[in-house]
Design brief:
Helix content: 10-25%
CATH superfamily of the largest domain: D-amino Acid Aminotransferase, subunit A, domain 2
CATH architecture of the largest domain: Alpha-Beta Barrel
Distance between the termini: 11 Å
Number of strands: 17
Bound molecules: pyridoxal-5'-phosphate
CATH topology of the largest domain: D-amino Acid Aminotransferase, Chain A, domain 2
CATH class of the largest domain: Alpha Beta
Low-confidence stretches: none
Order of helices and strands: EEEHEEEHHEEEHEEEHEEEEHE
């Protein structure tokens, strides 16, 4: 078999059906051993728990081809652990870390021809998802669940370099105080759709959500955590006053890179909206883009402009971006345990 012939640089971020996916079912109190299938469709009863009360959670990670032709994933143990946390919070049966990694190895190796070539800028996006599959009419957790892991190649997030974006301070909240903002639940995204469509219609790339309890501190965007660089060139990372920020793997890795590799100081603390004008750089971090630079925040017509401007990433964020992507792509040595190589037969 050989790599698929795709125009890797121009495939965009959308679903493309690949050859295989992994499926495991939870029945009679346990997960089965799981298997690979070519069937991309799920047949559910009309009364399935996920369709009634949105009992679902998911993850997102990527596989890359390295310069020397290996296929690697980045800290998948953290995605596996976070999915356990998500499942527990939603009264779903956790899928073990070992079985998650086994599923990952199987899915990526079965779809190895879909892993974009090194240097194309494209990557293989992997989507684990779990949902209540048995019937539920009274409000309660389902008795049966399905875990799936599928993948789709995605193009480079930034075509022609990372241009800074403009974001708005949202009038909507993404999550409730002490609700489900800190887990990767599908329902958080259903909640955010109206806000994102509204922001796009107004010409903004993303929403910045404030903490839902006091609406005075910065939380995150719909699908990415936020980082700032202060006037001394150090990293400031917003901490939630109401535990409603999703613990991004990318953000946690950036904090490590900043402290241990680049020697920056890192402050993780609540960040007030009214102090943001003191910062020099802002970025959004998540698996999809790694870091997207933000040039401006629009707060109800008032613009907060970062010194890094609207042309390119600021210098500190650029350094963080280059270091982290270098580690992910195998160009720089990774901290112990960060790179999980997929054994391909
Ligand atoms: C997935 C997600 C992120 C980014 O997390 P990564 O693990 O870095 O991909 C940030 N915020 C929200 C709300 C998310 O769902």
């Amino acid at each position: 078999m050989a790599k698929k012939e795709l125009d890797w640089a121009n495939i965009g971020f959308s679903y493309m059906k690949t050859d295989y996916r992994y499926v495991s079912d939870f029945k009679n109190g346990k997960w089965d051993e799981g298997h690979i299938t070519d069937d991309a469709n799920v047949v559910l009863n009309e009364c399935a728990g996920v369709l009634q009360y949105s009992q679902s959670c998911f993850e997102g990670l990527k596989a890359y081809e390295t310069e020397d032709g290996r296929i690697v994933t980045f800290r998948p143990d953290l995605n596996a652990k976070r999915m356990v946390d998500s499942a527990k919070r939603l009264e779903m049966p956790p899928f073990s870390e070992e079985q998650f990694i086994d599923a990952l190895d199987k899915v990526v190796s079965a779809n190895k021809d879909w892993v974009p070539p090194y240097g194309s800028g494209a990557t293989l996006y992997i989507r684990p998802v779990m949902f209540g599959s048995s019937v539920v009419i009274g409000v309660k957790p389902a008795d049966e669940y399905q875990f799936r892991m599928f993948c789709t190649p995605v193009g480079p997030y930034f075509k022609g370099g990372a241009k800074p974006i403009v974001v708005k301070v949202s009038d909507f909240d993404r999550a409730a105080p002490h609700g489900t903002g800190n887990i990767k639940a599908g329902l958080n995204y259903a909640m955010s759709l109206h806000a994102i469509v509204t922001a796009h219609n107004e010409g903004f790339a993303e929403n910045v959500y404030l903490d839902p309890a006091t609406r005075t501190t910065i939380e995150e965007t719909g699908g990415a955590n936020i980082i700032f660089v202060d006037a001394d060139g150090n990293l400031v990372v917003p901490k939630s006053a109401s535990d409603s920020i999703l613990p991004s793997v990318t953000r946690r890795s950036i904090v490590y890179v900043a402290e241990h590799i680049l020697g920056l100081k890192v402050e993780e603390r609540t960040v007030r909206l009214d102090e943001v004008h003191n910062f020099k750089e802002m970025g959004l971090c998540g698996t999809a883009a790694v870091i997207s630079p933000v040039g401006k925040i629009n707060d109800h017509g008032k613009e907060i402009c970062f010194e890094s401007g609207m042309e390119k990433m600021g210098p500190v964020i650029q350094k963080l971006y280059d270091t982290l992507t270098g580690i992910q792509m195998g160009r720089l040595e990774a901290p112990e345990g960060w790179i999980h190589e997929i054994k391909v037969d």
